[in-house]
Write a structure and sequence with these properties.
313 residues; alpha+beta; Rossmann fold; Alpha-Beta Plaits; 3 domains; six-stranded antiparallel sheet; 7 helices
Length: 313
């Protein structure tokens, strides 16, 4: 079906791949020293089934989940899970928010009651969803390693744990200190409260870091790349109908403060103009430059200045 020149090129490419790439070894793959490569075309649906079959055949089985309390084996009978992602406005018509949950152990059944560890409340889970590309279906059951979507009305956030009663706080979902910081303002002053809600929802997704300084009315948004500001501005405009402007700041970085509560309060009182809270209420130090940050660390050597914050319930 191919012309002669295309056949010659294909055979040459295949020969080169076979000569340069080592043969696949599942043991090496599971050890993290080898990566399988599939050749195909998603546009033409060529090789897609082979890719899916390969993932099903070669991917590792669910691993134990690490929590602050203990290690949870995937073979345990009781359900435990954690929220690793929040996505707002997947269906713009309904302004839905989905919390993506990974099952660590047990067998989930529709309607079962789970403990929301952070709040201590019991929630009946009737509308958990399973996703495949653009398709959704109600999850009648799910197993360790599966990912479900739970409709979320603001009660779930990244790092939250769900169990059948045991207090477990899973770790391994980090937040990173932003590389770039800008102020954001609504072009319509009447929509300031709406902007607050939009920023908090985007922060819950992990799309950006959002900080409310102790002084002033501006919000500070932190990202790892400049293009994210354009994406955020477009999302806020299209999803929340709020035109916004991002403006430069003199800030270099934002780092979370951790330590003895008395020390944290003393530090906050002394550096009030440079302090903020993130969307979860955690204290954050906004540094103007390296000297500013170094002096703060020298003045309070017992405090921890974190560029990575572990999200736990």
């Amino acid at each position: 079906m191919l012309p002669d020149h295309a056949i010659a090129k294909l055979r040459e490419d295949v020969e080169m791949v076979r000569a340069l790439c080592p043969p696949f070894s599942r043991d090496d793959y599971l050890a993290g020293t080898l990566t399988p490569v599939f050749f195909g075309s998603a546009v033409n649906t060529f090789g897609v089934q082979e890719l899916l079959k390969g993932i099903g055949s070669f991917a590792p089985s669910p691993k134990p989940g690490k929590s602050l309390e203990r290690e949870v084996a995937p073979t345990e009978k009781k359900v435990s899970a954690f929220v690793f992602k929040i996505q707002a406005n997947m269906d713009p018509k309904h302004r839905d928010r989905i919390a993506f949950v990974r099952l660590v152990s047990g067998k989930f059944k529709k309607g079962m009651k789970l403990k929301h560890v952070r709040s201590g409340k019991i929630m009946a889970v009737h509308n958990a969803q399973l996703f495949l590309a653009q398709d959704r279906e109600i999850a009648e059951e799910a197993y360790a390693g599966d990912i479900m979507g739970l409709p979320n009305h603001g009660n779930l956030r990244i790092g939250d744990s769900l169990t059948e009663g045991e207090t477990l706080r899973f770790v391994g979902v980090p937040s990173f200190a932003p590389e770039m910081l800008q102020k954001v303002r609504s072009e319509d002053p009447m929509k300031a409260k709406h902007l607050k809600r939009a920023l908090e929802q985007l922060a819950e997704e992990g799309a950006a870091s959002v900080f409310k300084p102790n002084l002033g009315s501006d919000w500070i948004v932190g990202v790892v790349g400049g293009l994210q500001f354009e994406v955020l501005a477009d999302r806020i405009r299209t999803e929340y109908q709020i035109p916004v402007k991002f403006e430069a700041t003199t800030l270099m970085t934002a780092e979370w403060i951790d330590g003895d509560p008395k020390e944290v309060k003393a530090f906050t009182d002394q550096n009030r103009a440079s302090m903020a809270l993130d969307h979860s209420g955690a204290p954050v130090y906004l540094a103007r430059n390296n000297w500013h940050l170094a002096k703060a660390k020298d003045d309070f050597p017992t405090l921890k200045f974190l560029r990575i914050k572990e999200e736990t319930a």
